[in-house]
Amino acid sequence: MARGRAAALAVKLNFFSPLPPARSEIARQTTNLLPLLAQKAEVVVWSSEPQWNPKAETDAVVRHYDAGHPPWREINQADVTFYQMGNDPRYHHAIWQISQQHPGVVILHDLKLQHFFSGLVFHELGLNRRQYLQLVERHHGARGRVLAESHLRGLLGTEELAEQCPLAGGATENALAIIVHSQAGLGSLSEDVPVSYLPLGVSEPPPHEMRPSSVPSSTGAYRISVFGFLGPNRRLPALLRALSDFAQRDRFRLDIYGTIEGEEKIHQLVARLGLNDLVTLHGFVHEDRLDEALRRTDLVVNMRYPSMGEASASQLHLWQYGLPALVTRTAWYETLPENTVAFVRPDHEAEDIQAHLAAFLADPEKYRELGRNGRRHVIENHSIEAYANGLLEMAARAPEFQAHWIARDLALRAGAAMNAWCDSSTIDAFLPRVAEEIRTLVAENSFAALTDGVPGTSTELAKSV
Amino acid sequence: MRIIIATVQIPFVSGGAESHAEGLKSALMMEGHDAAIVTVPFNPAVPERIPDQMLACRLLDLTEIHGAPVDRLIALKFPAYLVPHPNKVVWVLHQHRAAYDLWDYPFEDLSASPRGAIVREAIRRADQQLAEAKALFANSKNVANRLSHFCGINATPLYHPPPNAESFFCADETEDYLFFPSRFSASKRQSLVLEALALTKQKVKVRFAGLPDSPEYGKRLKLLAAKLGVESRVEWLGFLAEEEKRATYARSIAVVFPPVDEDYGYITLEAMLSSKAVITCDDSGGPLEFVLHGKTGLIAKPSAAALAEALDQLWKERSVAAKYGRAGRASYEQLGLSWREVVRQLLL
Hints:
Number of helices of chain A: 20
Structural class of chain A: alpha/beta
Oligomer: heterodimer
Number of domains of chain B: 2
Strand content of chain B: 15-25%
CATH architecture of the largest domain in chain A: 3-Layer(aba) Sandwich
Number of helices of chain B: 11
CATH topology of the largest domain in chain A: Rossmann fold
CATH topology of the largest domain in chain B: Rossmann fold
Distance between the termini of chain B: 12 Å
Number of strands of chain B: 14
Radius of gyration of chain A: 24 Å
Number of domains of chain A: 3
């Protein structure tokens, strides 16, 4: 079906993304996007995994690739290539490898990618220590390299390193353009590559049934959930300690869904704090079970500190269920309307968590209202239809992005060549001519629009020399 | 006038384009002009570097040499036709076809490169510079049509005679072979002729002349001939000097030339000058501007079976082959091709 319809469509897209059953919100988002993209474009989804959920093939052609031997002829048939980039090296290492060779539009799901890049080193996924350190130095200078060396020696945590050396540039240095999901992303990336802000899109919320009233469940307790991939920045220990110290802790049950980094330590902490009766670690659960669990949840704790900087698919997901959530007042979360979430200050975590738990017990309806507002916020600002249209608009601009890329690449190389034999005064004399000829070469209908040029050419030349 | 002919050459590869530039230079000098060829090395096998070569051409300044102005620049090939000049005339032999009609062809390097798509975009944008020329000519109608189709740019077809046109002749007696003189390349489709030979009902023999683009490709063709069991009906003549080439044309029954969408193709014209029928294919491009099916040759579908049928026909019906050949020579005369006319048009 996908092939037949595609024949009439003018735009061809490559979409490099993890696909279910990969345990990834990005995989889930791609699956939801495909029917919409396929209405207006011929889509080929490229998967480095040999198997995928057949649902993806309803709307797109899905092709397997080996990152060591990519089928360039097929890949080159598309008008533009999108790369879904996140922090999990398991799902994104092959995507990154392709993106380094074939310029495309990089969709950044995180603005701090140290987990990804150092993960490539630690899991031996195509980046060795030397290459990693060179990459960090390229983007964060000698000081960044020193910090990265400390990280490799186990002296500096990933989150701390990511705060100072986010390394998002490592995923975008060959990009035609970048898509970010937060306003903060617009300002935080290099000016060399065009960056567009596109609010992360999620599907229409499922038919929603709130718990009938503010009455606790049959256990007599309210249910708190935490879900997603649970690394150190998800603040589980802080949450557990705050719960442990909360006088009315028996009024709550805490369910934790998802893969936990350092799970054994969390188990030990739960036991040490005497929370075994209140806390259940479910591990990774499939989507259906998670959805069912969310329907039974009263409050979600979705804290992140430090944040990896980007919009949270998990937050949008829980809002679809109209669920109230405690979030850290930082990065993208900080930009959320006050009436949609309950904020926790990073430096007052325990105090704020306990205050919210107390307030919830006093007036659960007030928190439910946050969830309902959040649900409206998703519908109004994060429609997947608008997101798909945004991607298609980016695809339509591909020739413009390609021109910019070519100009930049030529400028860098010409600058490097001149640098080898020119002194600064000679370079000054040459630069305008070289920049002008690069502009002439790549400008669209250039014989009529030489003056339009391509932004950044002279700057790139100047920088490169 | 002081005139520079700007062209490119792939080092170690020589063919019609080089003869073309030399022919033009001689013609210009015959008409009393001072002419020189400026050849830029070009290596399309590394697609990532093509934009560099484009920029290099763009940065060449050929407006004056030793203080004396260059009155006209006649540019022939990509990316040499990007060299700027206030009095530039472009006579396009062909664009970089891998960025256009040959993008999908399996023997082209560009689409197999990770940066193929982006380099293609660079080439397409740069080709818009063709419109800056004072006048734009194409080597053939086929080349002009491609320019119009892909770039929306109009060019006037301008034919020219092949090198040493006056020296071609037809021998009184023919020998038992068809002749296929051309560079060995996937785009010239020597392999299709071998496959056709395997299907002919007659014991058709073909003499191939020319050098392969790469030694590997030459070996591959010979292996194919062996695999198809036609090696006894094939001769590999290698490179032939001009005189020897003309003699081989002269003694042939007919000429086989079935390339993929050829730009122009001296071989067709040389065959016609030698009074030889031409067997070509209906997707062969340039030859179709000269070969009339059933009058000066045969135009077959580009399949081994269809080509085999055409080979059989002229192999068996020698008098028909000779008749087509004579008609081809007459047709050539009617074209009125001359370098003098070419020079007149280019310097208008």
